Known about the structure:
Layout: H1 2-5, H2 13-20, H3 26-35, E1 50-55, H4 63-76, E2 85-90, H5 101-118, H6 129-149, H7 155-179
Parallel strand pairs: 1-2
Helix pairs in contact: 5-6, 5-7, 6-7
Amino acid sequence: MCNTMLDPTLPLTTLDYEEFGDPRIETEFGIIRSYSPYDNIPVGVCHPPMLIMASFNDSRVGVWEAAKWVARVRDNSCLTCSQMIILRTNMTGGHFLEGGRFKQCEDAAEEYAFLIKAVGMLDDEDQSEFKEARCKPVIMAMGLHLSKNLPHMSTKQSRKAGLQLVNMAKAFELRKSSLIRK
């Protein structure tokens, strides 16, 4: 945040001075740094699972901001941390990602899949009936959410879409394994 606000050629930067402070003034720079997300990532902490989304064509927040933040979180995590910290970069959308109902549903499905995996609903060790009872309402709720966004989708199709989210969540396991420190 501090470095970005020091560049007045970036969009909205000078407008942000009134809200956040002017980093060119030494005392205000210190205040901004005290609440800057990038400058306040704790060291040696096992962070919770995170799915960070950025857009390559975002004119308000540079894609490098999210990339730098994720890199620092990963570097500052404890050495035994194996949590998913995933950066998803949309290569075509802007500040509000991509438009269109189908793309929004696809994004929501990916977020749901990440959440299913992050809360451990797919852990292999938990094969109990309780797990199945716990997962089914969540999957059904996601299917209903999709059917509301896609009104032409039948209830049966929305349930099927909800169940397909489980497969997406399993894909996050592959991503997670590539992010674990060796």
